[in-house]
């Protein structure tokens, strides 16, 4: 049992941090990038590919690096640290994760290879206007037509849904929820993009008898979706940890330098104590996020671990995001200063894939089934 | 102690409710209900509708259009206005410079400004805060130097709300840099925003909107008659102005409106085919916020019912603090009801996400300001600890 | 609409405050009184009777003063201010309230007269070891025998249950829950008294074919019990307001005088801000408590108003009780200092007749039935 | 990063679990589980059972009975002890004076005290806090004046936990009133509680129990050889002692045990004929506390896994703060599960209220102390803000 990165992991962390520090050296640089579609920097995306990060978790046979969840977590945390808007988790962890989990050898080779090279941006089109953080699909349906399939219905909001070259789509089908591949230029596909409050892009994606290819061998894929969503929740948790870390550090620096009534703000104990409480929230959330990645690595119950991480990170994100602004005062609510963007992104992460109350309700439903939690034992140790 | 309103007040409340829900243009009230940004013209039309009925400046002296109402009547007027989603008369005009002019301006200034201020023929903005003078307002640096019949103003203001719409600005300037107490060297000047040397820079906020500005002054010449009250007494006028209508900031009516909307939207959102409103946690969260709002409203009523004598009830310092916390709780509730749909913040045509859900996150982010402006919650706690608890 | 006491109410308040200030001038005096059974001062009880306070809410025809809920609230708040342990609410509001609501003219005259004179201490024996804040009875049953009744079962905890001269007992009977009168010296009655953490007394009361007289005309009394419990919740709310007020004042005084690191504690902003938050909790709770009494006075929905007061007062009581100790530090947890006793009593009040979560759940069950709350309108204005 | 314990550590954990659940008298562990006050003899029997197996002072130097364990082994040892409701070895002996004697005592003192201290043949109590020196310990006033071969001690200590059972006291005294820095004039003396001039006054706590005391010294003569370490270096020893085993104070195992009991009792309490555990709000409240406990336990593991190098991990300052908050949350949960039954706090025979419900309120009240003693939560926040955030 240990929480230390090995030297390769530390090297990876430094390399990613260096790359992103150049791409997003300050908040104005990011503001410029997210102003224009697609809401991220294609050049940075290529650099992430060149560094091998876009194939990080995929098997080497599928053109990936064969790295584990801890490496993915390291990248996600560095992304959060500078609010890099590139759709790493959407493409690599979520869409890529589904393809590598259920795709045929052929699909894996083609799609994961393209993702790894940076030539294919794939996203998971799953959320529907009238469902709420479910692992199943209701409003988009799949119909067999000849040896192919067609999809009909609406997915929204789909992060980077308009920019994506390839959509992995969940759809209701006899016997449950299936997964399908839709090309960005497919017929009967209408995508309406818009900016989201955190500077990224999402889209309304409308299927109207749109031709699609079945991902994998078919059958009900709800379990695979639940697992992929859990792994994405864990990765988003690490992105949030990176964001909270920067938000706290930015706030502490501000308290040390900003003067009111002739003294710097860190002379006001009520403010420094609140900063201390932010640190407590951050470190507790960090512990659970790191643990969840280790559970995934150990082959334990990743869904249960993701719920725990989700709850802890959500509570910490609200607390730190709101306090970071409040402790800054007026400048904290301006788009010209960095900290408000961190609050905005933390709120976005919280509403992707299930918020804290959602996770708490899932944990509450099971709380009577066991006496105590042993985070190093079953069902987490695998 | 008595719970019920007197028949007269019941009738008064009914009169207000009827007026606000029938005489103020529906589409403007719909904008407010949907938390959409208002156009300049929306503010003007709404205020003129109120002013035409004598309901824009009831707290002013009668001779300038005031109503001589009791604090309770003013409370009912404001609450009903908020419940009806009527945009409140521009605070800079009606709660800030107007009362200052009425109390400290000379006769000529009153005649020149008050009627146009009440009718929003003149749109006023506030020039108080500076980059290095926020909560610590008295350390402001903008200077006005006397030169013949003019004051020459140089410096910078910030957080000037809706300055982009303003015709005139009322401004705190340092006229005696040598004053032993920094509060004593400050004066209040008013001048047109299109005066030579005035430039305005809008500040984008994290919700993507533009409602505050930086205002720069470079050798702006202001005629001596635009000094309000006495030279170097500006700090007293500022305190008078900021202390004005402390009760209004609880914004109970606005929060009640938001909570009612939240209940309705929780019925529209479905979870596994059942309304989110049926989720016991959601119902409980709504019930807890609602009870806090009841407590806040009753506290506001206690304050207005007891402050007839003029001096504010001690509990009034609670109103801004808890009022802002509950406004934020209501916006956060709305955000969490929208849930995954809250991502679609700037969706336009071609989206299946309802308007209210699109507005939820920007509104939540925008409302982080309410615990900061108008005396931050930290300032409020300082007042309570100091003036009430003697700490 | 106004929140001011009239001059008679102010006089009443001063008179009660004066009487109790003599009886409980400091925390040591109270400690002495509660050490010995019955846990309160019989002499103080007689003085309360002489002042007419024990008959305050009863009709003059029944030997009372015919005063209203606001007067009762004033007495309760003064009791809370000094933690007077006399069973005023238990005897006058709860037991007396039930007798005056459902008793026959004869019962009212006899019992309420005795309570008013201070010669009869009556309490409501209602809580049962296996029920939780219900308005009905399950474990004590009533059986008709000849022209009288007998009761069997257990009530616990019953405040002042052993000292009481007369027990008003709720019992399950065909068609619902009935109310019965049992004399303290009745046959088949076993009462086991014990101290409670707040210094008062409670008892296990065991009925074994115990002879009882029916209160009133019989039939299901659940509605009357629900109403009496609501009126008692409101009165306890005022007792809690008085206790919180003293706890806050004591804490503020301590911060002004206690020195650490060479300065008084009120130089530590983190502490003074927390005291400010205590004040906010207190004043908001006070508003709802006063309002609930006005609703009762106006003949409005007293049960709904009591739930609102219960929730607000409960949250405030936890907050203020816990912070009062924390801001004191070690001395706050000693029985030799006053503030901990206030925390203890606030917790006791919270668990009598339903705690904050209990009230919140009741309010949540109804929250969808209306759009907004108008505290001056229906159903509260009567 | 790796989740699983090594096979060796798994075996170690199993060994601890087996020992604690089989070799420590069941009735003593039952007392702990029920939060009943322990008799002096219970502490002694439990600690001697541990010491006989070499498990009382694993963190001491090996030559004095220590185990040379890793921080993680010590963590497992402590957690398993708490989960098994084993009373922990008396902190004053094993975590406080013992390590100080081993580190700073002379050879004669080590031989005289350490073995008896490990075996609780000597029961130690702590003489640090004074009425006017709480969080501000360095301002203590108790004096020791050299007189021939003795120190003569006068003054008063307070908050001396379990002093009524103690044989000896380790005491901070001022030996150089003239020292320029008040920290520099303090020394550490040890002496028997039955020395002439020592009197003890128990302090009743709000739960009705007696666990702390005032201790008065009137011309108490202490032989010079009872000075620990160097004269006027006592402050360093005190800091060493108080910094010792900071990790242990998270008390995760104890809180997990309480939460498990709470779950069980929520099954026993019925509401309208159904178990309280089925109430979604109760289940959710338990789940939220439980998740916070998981987070705390993992943070404690991060700290011990990284502090092999000796210097404490920054996050360790979180442990006392959140650990005490969660202990209090657990006692409050138990209290609210007991609900109306929690009134029966001092019921005895003839009550139908179960023991655990009787104990709930006194336990809740008693646990208000955990956020105050051993460095209050305010002190912890000061450390975090200062040492970690640099504020």
Any overview of this molecule?
- The complex is a heterotetramer, with two copies of chain A (about 375 residues) and two copies of chain B (about 400 residues).
- Chain A is an alpha+beta fold.
- Chain A has eleven helices and nine strands.
- Chain A has helices at about 5-25, 25-35, 40-50, 70-80, 90-100, 105-115, 220-255, 270-295, 300-330, 340-350, 355-365; strands at about 120-125, 140-145, 150-160, 165-175, 175-185, 190-195, 200-215, 260, 265.
- In chain A, the strands form two sheets. In chain A, strands 1, 2, 3, 4, 5, 6 and 7 form a seven-stranded mixed beta sheet that branches. In chain A, strands 8-9 form a two-stranded antiparallel ribbon.
- In chain A, a hairpin with a 5-residue loop joins β6 (about 190-195) and β7 (about 200-215).
- In chain A, α7 runs antiparallel to α8 (about 270-295).
- Chain A is globular and about 75 Å long.
- Chain B is of the alpha+beta class.
- Chain B contains twelve helices and ten strands.
- Chain B has helices at about 5-25, 25-35, 40-50, 70-85, 90-105, 105-120, 235-245, 250-270, 280-305, 315-340, 355-365, 375-390, and strands at about 125, 145, 150-155, 170-175, 185-190, 200-205, 210-225, 225-230, 270, 275.
- In chain B, the strands form three sheets. In chain B, strands 1-4-5-8 form a four-stranded mixed beta sheet. In chain B, strands 2-3-7-6 form a four-stranded antiparallel beta sheet, with no helix packed on it. A two-stranded antiparallel sheet of chain B has the order 9-10.
- The longest helix of chain B is centred in the C-terminal third of the chain and has 27 residues, at about 280-305.
- Chain B is globular.
- Chain B starts with 6 loop residues before the first helix and ends with a helix.
- Classes of the chains: A alpha+beta (about 375), B alpha+beta (about 400).
- At the A-D interface, α7, α8, α9 and α11 of A face α8, α9, α10 and α12 of D.
């Amino acid at each position: 049992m240990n929480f230390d990165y090995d030297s390769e992991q530390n090297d990876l962390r430094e390399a990613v941090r260096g790359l992103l520090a150049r791409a997003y050296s300050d908040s104005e640089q990011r503001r410029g990038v997210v102003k224009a579609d697609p809401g991220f920097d294609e050049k940075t995306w290529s650099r992430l590919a060149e560094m091998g990060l876009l194939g990080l978790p995929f098997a080497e046979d599928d053109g990936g690096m064969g790295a584990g969840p801890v490496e993915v977590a390291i990248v996600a945390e560095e992304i959060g640290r500078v609010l890099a808007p590139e759709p790493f988790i959407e493409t690599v962890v979520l869409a890529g994760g589904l393809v590598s989990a259920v795709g045929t050898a052929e699909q894996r080779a083609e799609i994961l290879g393209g993702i790894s090279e940076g030539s294919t941006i794939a996203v998971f089109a799953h959320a529907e206007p009238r469902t709420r953080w479910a692992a199943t699909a209701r409003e988009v349906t799949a119909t067999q037509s000849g040896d192919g399939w067609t999809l009909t219905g609406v997915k929204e909001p789909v992060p980077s849904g308009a920019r994506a070259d390839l959509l992995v789509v969940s759809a209701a089908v006899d016997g449950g929820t299936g997964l399908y591949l839709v090309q960005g230029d497919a017929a009967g596909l209408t995508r309406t993009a818009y900016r989201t409050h955190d500077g990224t892009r999402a889209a309304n994606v409308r299927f109207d008898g749109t031709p699609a290819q079945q991902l994998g061998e078919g059958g009900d894929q709800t379990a695979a979706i639940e697992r992929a969503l859990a792994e994405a929740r864990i990765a988003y948790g690490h992105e949030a940890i990176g964001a909270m870390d920067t938000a706290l550090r930015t706030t502490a620096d501000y308290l040390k330098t900003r003067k009111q009534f002739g003294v710097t703000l860190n002379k006001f104990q009520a403010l420094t104590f609140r900063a201390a409480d932010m640190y407590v929230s951050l470190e507790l959330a960090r512990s659970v996020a790191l643990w969840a990645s280790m559970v995934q690595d150990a082959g334990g119950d990743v869904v249960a671990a993701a719920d725990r991480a989700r709850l802890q990170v959500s509570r910490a994100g609200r607390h730190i995001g709101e306090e970071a602004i409040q402790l800054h005062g007026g400048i904290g609510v301006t788009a010209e200063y960095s900290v408000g963007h961190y609050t905005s992104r933390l709120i976005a992460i919280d509403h992707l894939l299930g918020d804290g109350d959602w996770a708490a309700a899932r944990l509450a439903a099971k709380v009577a089934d066991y006496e105590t939690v042993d985070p190093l034992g079953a069902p987490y140790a695998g | 102690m008595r719970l019920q309103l007197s028949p007269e007040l019941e009738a008064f409340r009914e009169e207000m409710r009827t007026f606000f829900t029938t005489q103020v243009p529906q589409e403007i009230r719909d904008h407010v209900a949907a938390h959409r940004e208002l156009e300049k013209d929306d503010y003007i039309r709404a205020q003129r509708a109120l002013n035409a009925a004598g309901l824009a400046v009831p707290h002013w002296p009668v001779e300038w259009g005031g109503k001589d109402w009791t604090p309770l009547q003013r409370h009912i007027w404001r609450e009903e206005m908020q419940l009806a989603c009527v945009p409140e008369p521009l605070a800079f005009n009606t709660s800030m410079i107007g009362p200052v002019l009425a109390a400290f301006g000379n006769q000529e200034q009153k005649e020149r400004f008050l009627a146009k201020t009440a009718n929003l023929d003149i749109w006023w903005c506030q020039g108080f805060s500076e980059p290095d003078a926020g909560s610590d307002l008295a350390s402001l640096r903008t200077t006005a130097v006397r030169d013949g019949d003019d004051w020459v103003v140089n410096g910078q203001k910030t957080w000037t709300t809706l300055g982009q719409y303003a015709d005139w600005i009322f401004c705190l300037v340092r006229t005696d840099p040598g004053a032993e107490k920094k509060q004593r060297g400050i004066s209040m000047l008013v001048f047109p925003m299109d005066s030579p040397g005035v430039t305005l820079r809008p500040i984008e906020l994290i919700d993507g909107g533009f409602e505050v500005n930086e205002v720069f002054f470079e050798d702006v010449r202001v005629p001596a008659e635009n000094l309000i009250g006495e030279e170097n007494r500006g700090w007293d006028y500022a305190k008078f102005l900021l202390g004005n209508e402390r009760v209004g900031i609880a914004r109970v009516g606005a929060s009640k409106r938001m909570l009612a909307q939240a209940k309705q939207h929780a019925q529209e959102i479905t979870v596994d085919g059942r309304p989110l409103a049926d989720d016991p946690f959601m119902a409980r969260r709504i019930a807890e916020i609602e009870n806090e709002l009841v407590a806040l409203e009753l506290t506001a009523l206690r304050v207005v019912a007891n402050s007839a004598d003029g001096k504010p009830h001690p509990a009034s310092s609670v109103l801004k603090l808890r009022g802002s916390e509950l406004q934020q709780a209501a916006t956060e509730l709305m955000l969490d009801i929208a849930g995954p749909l809250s991502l679609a913040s700037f969706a336009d045509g071609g989206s299946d996400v309802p308007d209210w859900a699109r507005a939820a996150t920007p509104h939540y982010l925008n409302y982080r300001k309410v615990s900061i402006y108008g005396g931050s919650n930290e300032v409020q706690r300082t007042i309570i600890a100091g003036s009430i608890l003697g700490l």
